[in-house]
Design brief:
By secondary structure, the chain is mainly beta. The chain has two helices and 23 strands.
């Protein structure tokens, strides 16, 4: 009986070793890989629209033999994107390219000067300094998804709320704004989401998912009050629904987020 148990243990250990060896081989593939990149955003309650001028997207591979320091330019449609269109779980196909391997280490986004915001129906320029037109984010295997050994996906979250700052006075009322891009890269296999609905529309609610010092916001859709916050790290969250126009706030605690899963909240109704 001991020999049988020992044999099963050896087989299990061998299968586990094979599985992780295969995973490691897939995650560090040396052959050509097709990369697809999506663009999404977390909302900001301050602006009606946020127009960002995106001119170039590059990825850096872990390969010293490549020219240009390993940076590869991807194919995008350069121009101005209203990134607030890509909220509540929506995204857009943003870039694609073929890489010599899937060992991606960094991404670099280059911005233009035609940036602006819409606030209370008025358009205001969004200033950006020359030394802040490029933003770099580190990336590793946990940031992207591999559908097959030669197909890689990841999402870029252009966080409007953290990227836009008031001028030196610190007042939003001066209608003078600066852009300092804040982006984050994630894959769905190593992140989760929270979704639900809030009513009534008259409450003009803002939803915040809070863990530690990190806060991620969503603004429910006008039509049905539905919201979705994507790209969240696994863990326990406090969800605060901030009511306005005389409606009270509501807080839901111990909301558990798991990787590659959607956490559904029951319908939320705010009251005066």
């Amino acid at each position: 009986m001991k020999n049988i148990h020992l044999n099963f243990a050896v087989i299990a250990l061998t299968l586990t070793s094979i599985f992780y060896a295969c995973q490691k081989e897939v995650m560090s593939k040396n052959g050509p890989s097709k990369l697809t990149v999506f663009l999404t955003d977390h909302a900001t309650p301050v602006f009606d629209s946020v127009f960002i001028d995106i001119q170039k997207l590059e990825v850096k591979l872990e390969d010293d033999t490549l020219s240009n320091g390993g940076w590869i330019e991807l194919t995008i449609r350069p121009g101005v994107y209203n990134i607030l269109r890509f909220r509540n779980g929506l995204d857009t196909l943003f870039a694609n390219g073929t890489l010599s391997n899937n060992r991606i280490r960094k991404i670099r986004l280059t911005l233009g000067t035609q940036n602006s915001v819409m606030k209370d129906g008025q358009l205001f320029p969004l200033r950006i300094k020359d030394n802040e037109k490029q933003v770099v984010a580190n990336i590793d295997n946990s940031n992207f998804d591999i559908a097959a050994p030669d197909q890689v996906f990841f999402w870029i979250d252009f966080d409007a709320g953290r990227s836009i700052q008031a001028d030196n006075s610190g007042s939003w009322n001066n209608n003078s704004f600066e852009l300092k891009a804040h982006i984050r890269v994630f894959g769905k296999r190593n992140s989760g989401s929270i979704e639900g609905s809030v009513s009534p529309k008259a409450a003009d609610p803002v939803v915040m998912a809070i863990t530690g010092s990190d806060t991620t916001m969503a603004i429910p859709d006008d039509d049905d009050g539905e919201f979705k916050i994507v790209g969240l790290n696994a863990g326990s969250y406090k969800v605060l629904i901030d009511g306005n126009n005389g409606y009270s706030d509501t807080t839901i605690v111990n909301v558990v987020v798991r990787n590659n899963e959607n956490t559904h909240l029951p319908a939320i109704i705010l009251h005066r």
